[in-house]
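Subject: for your reference before the review

Hello V.,

The reviewers asked for a structural picture of the protein, and I figured it would be easier to keep everything in one thread rather than splitting it across files. Below is the amino acid sequence we used in the manuscript, unchanged from the supplementary table.
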Amino acid sequence: MQRRKFISLLCGGAVAGPIAARGQQSAMPVIGWMSGRSPADSTHLLEAFRKGLHDTGYVEGESISIEYRWAQGDYGRLPELASDLVNRGVLLLIAVGGEPSAIAAKQATSTIPIVFGIGGDPVNAGLVASFNRPGGNATGYTLLTSQMEPKRIGLLHELVPTASSLGALVNPTFPPAVRQLADIENATKTIRQSLFVARASTDAELTAAFASFVQQRVGAALIAADPYFDTRREQIIALAAQAQLPTMYQFREFVVAGGLISYGPSYTDSYTQGGIYAGRILRGAKPADLPILQPTKFEMVINLKTANSLGLNIPNSMQLLADEVIE
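And here is what came back from the structure prediction:
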């Protein structure tokens, strides 16, 4: 009993069961964090995740240690990052920033618990057996962002009804891109709007994509939901401003930074829930028994200053429907 008590104190008294046994070699339990995003655009998300951990009794640097790995939009790096964390013997993997991160974590281990954060369907991605009973070693949350493209297309058409054609920017290296593109094409057909698609997965291709929007004279553009585009937020907003192109985004952070309009969930809430799931697993809960979390609220944000710079009049009806209007 005395030896067990001593180990419990070393671990901060915060772990139980098989996870605690693996953590006895360290003064405090270590979890691995891997993301398809970058540190610069994830500061507020990390704060939200740490809040979730705190709510379950864990404080980074006091009762928990976190090893961070960032792909910074280069999805090809994720398998190596996952393997590195697995080889370091972390007790838990946090795989966020899109499907590529979660898939890499799942391929790297079938035993270490995983909490993932993605934008699409985790069942179709092969991550879990079902939403209610994930099974296996992984659970987490989906933001449903990659499934919201038709709604965004509809809002963009309502915002710029005189546009002769719409543009869409997708990342061909992002696993959900095939479905995203199909959804976008179907949505534009429904409203009988012509569509021009540009593809980009590098900085040079981003610049070329906006140049092609201008060349094709698209009246407004949709930036498909993709963590790579999140890591290039400032660049994309600047390119849209240079092209004088009304542009729709997935998260409010784009609009706060100068983008025109966004529609999507509050993903800070989801990161907080991810932190809570991480804490529960560290305390002995099994990922197989924790249902996949989904957002319950979606928000539309409009930047009137950006609209004015584009010479665009935002209908009062849209302003009244918006959850936030930045003036």
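For the response letter, the relevant points are probably these. The chain has two domains: 2-143+266-297, 146-265+299-326. Residues 148 and 264 are 7 Å apart (CA to CA).

Happy to draft the paragraph if you're swamped.

O.
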